Amino acid sequence: MLDLSNLSPSPGARKKRKRVGRGPSSGHGKTSGRGHNGQKSRSGYSRRFGFEGGQTPINRRLPKRGFNHSDRHAMAAVNLDVLNEHFEDGAEVTNESIVEKKLAKELAGGVKVLGRGEITKKLSLKVSGISESARQKIEAAGGSVELNEAPVARAVKNRVKGKKAE
Length: 166
Description:
The longest helix is centred in the C-terminal third of the chain and has 9 residues, at 132-140. By secondary structure, this protein is α/β, with parallel strands linked by helices. The chain has a domain at 76-147: CATH 3.100.10.10. The chain contains five helices and six strands, in the order αβαβαβββαβα. 13% of the residues are buried. The strands form two sheets. It has a three-stranded parallel beta sheet with strand order 1-3-5.
């Protein structure tokens, strides 16, 4: 029977440490597995990440593609059927309340409401974006839609047209 007095690890679970520089019979003596001479055999050697021994590294050989648009802010999408399910009739729906109920992730661009499903409740929306079909359905149900101001990228906010940033 297995109990605390006769416990042992599975075979191969515990491996002995590789002790280098302990004589020729160990198999890791003399050069300690580092080979003869060269930069890699010296103490204190460490190479820079991506270094390929002087050969042009892959990140410089490959062409750069695309760019990151400074005004783009990703929006989290939420559909009408989800709002209809999680909010009471007459409720005010904001970016914060949607994120708070974990219906969408908190993203820089806020929340965009999309038109999937039907809505039966009168909701007051204050969100960052809304599709045309969603707006029509909410207004048909007696609700209202108000859009928040879009966030402005830091680089754009600090820039004055025609002048360089100081």
